[in-house]
Amino acid sequence: MKDNPVYTTKEIEKAVDDYISQFKEGYFSPLALMARLSEETGELAREINHYYGEKPKKATEEVKTVEEEIGDILFVLACITNSLDLNLSDAFHTSITKITTRDKDRWTKKEEN
């Protein structure tokens, strides 16, 4: 495990906002951010295909990691939530609540020890 700092979602949002706020252009439009998210998702898919799929990297391709691509996606998600005055933690809370209630009996649970 790396000795990198651990960030809360609020700290992620602040770090992204601190970075973006130093530029006159500010945040991209929601549509441009969505395009960027799609681009980063494609890059994640490509890396997963290289590491776990049938398509190895070419010798000329840049070395990237799945973790790096997930980080890029998280950065863009923080850009989206910041620019729309939303909250990553609230968005996740809504999602996990929905999933844990809607899908609570959908899968076979492991037996407890």
Write the layout of secondary structure elements.
Blueprint: H1 9-20, H2 30-52, H3 66-83, H4 88-102
Structure keywords:
single chain, 113 residues, mainly alpha, 60% helix, 0% strand
Description of the molecule:
By secondary structure, the chain is mostly helical. It has four helices and no strands. It is 60% helix and 0% strand. The longest helix has 23 residues, at 30-52. The radius of gyration is 18 Å and the shape is globular. The protein starts with 8 loop residues before the first helix and ends in an 11-residue tail after the last helix. The model has no long low-confidence stretch (mean pLDDT 93).
Low-confidence stretches: none
The largest pleated sheet is described as: none
Succession of helices and strands: HHHH
- The gyration radius over C-alpha positions equals 18 Å
Distance from N terminus to C terminus (CA atoms, Å) equals 28 Å
How does the overall form come out from the CA principal axes?
globular
Tell me the total number of β-strands.
Answer: 0
Round the mean pLDDT to the nearest integer and report it: 93
Structural class: mainly alpha
User: What is the number of helical segments per DSSP (H or I, 4+ residues)?
Assistant: 4
Question: Can I get a quick summary?
Answer:
It is built from 4 helices and no strands. With 113 residues, it is mainly α. It is globular and about 55 Å long.
